[in-house]
Specification:
By secondary structure, the protein is of the alpha/beta class. 33% of the residues lie in helices and 19% in strands. Strands 1, 2, 5, 6, 7, 8, 9, 20, 21 and 22 form a 10-stranded mixed sheet that branches. Helix 7 packs antiparallel against helix 8 and helix 8 packs antiparallel against helix 10.
Length: 526
């Protein structure tokens, strides 16, 4: 048994490395697929390519259509954060596999990142047996499939949260070997489920490349400020090891799929960690557009209480203060949620998390936010223009170049019913220089000094353990009869795969933002 349409994901892999190693023979399966099929670049969702990529892939909607950009994000018209995947109205759109299931197609959907468990499905679904983002934990549909999976391959061999402070070669070797073992187990599971019946749609995503890129880019990249050549000598290139393991897995799967139409896709990419998101709150405070939390501008009992306990807080050991700050920042383990980093009563805007390469800013609009003070219309327009100008004027002392590559407003990029779920402004950091981390190489390259006439000098040090982060560009290769080999001259939007897969499955064209790719429209089996 096999499938008619097979979708295999290599999550957050570097397109440059995939093509380079395919060309030089280190990824022989992918190289052979490129020789036989149609390949090209994937254009991600601008500004939201960190969190919105997979929802846009499987719903065909832009971020203002589905409304998801973070596992924890601000709830519209409030100052409260929530987990949209836990909210029945937190994510808009219909995954293509649900449309296929409703139309009577047999589907198998395995470990697609940031996807919800389906209550009913004409087939099977596995959520987070092994994935980079842990939202729900391991679940299956039908429920009894879970015991079958665990009996076959056991639990996922590495922690679902791969953010850990690894220092030694042994620690990194344990992690990389764990990723390789995870790929082997995932392949065994995939082959077993693939062979159980003739599926109309079968989808599996290898997220191990995602974890390797975040945690080990500095080992791979000799130009990264945290690079340690001795560590590279000890463990080899973690990205190459992980990609080669996935390449072998894809080869094993291709041997079993027969005449299926196959899409191999990395929906977004990976490169070095960059940006100064950790400076954004202080920059906004210095610009006078955001009130500092806990300053005298705060009113009421909460502000008085913070003032009263501050001397006690300052007496606590630094390690205790760090632990409390981490808990207040919000962890998925204990259910705590972050708080707005502002005194909202004195703020015209405030920062909201959106990922490291692109920061988010929310306007504190009168009539929308509970304590909004910025009036819609000319006042808000003039404010945004001045703020954008001031952000672009900031200089990175490391390079003498602008710290901010660009600032843009979300409504100029996207329109949709869930626009209010997104930040109003996006701050795209200059990517010319990687940012180090305090976690490695004694903090080399981790400190950034930002200057401008308005903010003076703002200095901060990056403590985030990740050394690699996302880029909006992905990559794909497509195999099917009547598809001539070659490379597409223009990138394909990540939103275009949803309607294209619907056509391949013989479904009606869905009402989505993506457009069916003509070359994918109706290839016959190879």
């Amino acid at each position: 048994m096999s499938a008619k349409v097979v979708v295999l994901g290599i999550d957050a892999a570097s397109p440059l490395l995939l093509k380079k190693w395919a060309a030089n023979g280190r990824l022989p399966t992918i190289g052979a697929m490129m020789d036989r099929g149609l390949s090209g670049s994937v254009e991600g969702v601008k500004g939201y390519f960190i969190g919105s990529t997979w929802p846009s892939f499987y719903t065909g909607l832009n971020p203002a259509g589905h409304g998801f950009h973070r596992i924890i994000q601000l709830r519209d018209r409030t100052y409260d954060f929530f987990r949209p995947m836990d909210d029945p109205n937190g994510l808009g759109g219909v995954p293509f596999w649900r449309l296929a299931s409703r139309a009577g197609r047999r589907v198998a959907v395995l470990d697609v990142p940031l996807s919800r468990p389906e209550a009913k499905i004409n087939g099977i679904q596995i959520v987070e047996w092994g994935g980079h983002d842990a939202v729900f934990g391991f679940e299956t549909t039908p429920a009894e499939l879970a015991s079958d999976v665990l009996a076959m391959v056991g639990p996922y061999p590495i922690p679902t949260n791969c953010d850990h402070h690894r220092k030694t070669p042994d620690e990194f070797e344990e992690f990389i070997s764990g990723l390789e073992l995870a790929i082997q187990k995932k392949t065994r599971l995939t082959l077993d489920l693939l062979g159980r019946e003739q599926w109309d749609l079968f989808m599996q995503v290898f997220t191990e490349s995602h974890c390797a890129g975040h945690q080990c880019w500095h080992i791979h990249d000799p130009d990264h400020p945290s690079h340690d050549p001795l560590l590279l000598d000890a463990v080899g290139d973690p990205l190459e090891r992980t990609y080669r393991a996935i390449d072998k897995a894809v080869g094993d799967i291709l041997e079993q799929v027969g005449d299926a139409v196959v899409l191999l896709v990395s929906a977004h990419g990976m490169t070095y960690f960059r940006g100064a998101g950790f400076l954004l709150p202080e920059i906004l405070y210095r610009l006078g557009v955001t009130g500092r939390p806990g300053t005298p501008t705060a009113s009421g009992f909460g502000g008085q209480l913070r003032t009263a306990v501050r001397p006690i807080w300052n007496m606590l050991p630094a390690r205790v203060r760090r632990a409390v700050r981490r808990s207040r920042a919000g962890s998925l383990a204990d259910g705590r949620l972050p708080r707005v980093q502002a005194d909202v009563e004195g703020s015209k805007c405030f920062p909201v998390a959106n990922g490291q390469p692109v920061g988010g800013i929310r306007l504190n609009l009168a009539g929308r936010e509970p304590q909004g003070i910025l009036q819609r219309g000319p006042e808000a327009e003039a404010f945004c223009e001045e703020l954008m100008h001031d952000l672009r004027a900031i200089v990175d002392e490391r390079t003498g170049e602008p710290l901010v590559a660009d600032v843009y407003r979300t409504h100029t990029l996207y329109q949709g019913p869930r626009l209010g779920a997104l930040p109003d402004l996006l701050v795209e950091w200059n990517d010319r220089m990687p940012t180090g981390t305090r976690a490695h190489a004694h903090g080399r390259g981790a400190t950034i000094r930002a200057t401008s006439a308005k903010i003076g000098t703002v200095e901060g040090t990056n403590s985030y353990v990740r050394t690699g982060d996302h880029i909006p560009t992905g990559w794909f290769v497509f195999l099917g009869a009547n598809i001539p080999p070659g490379e597409m001259s223009e990138p394909i939007s990540v939103m275009d795969f949803h309607p294209s897969l619907c056509r391949l499955l013989g479904l009606s064209d869905p009402d989505v933002d993506g457009t069916a790719i003509p070359e994918f429209a109706s290839p016959r089996s190879r």
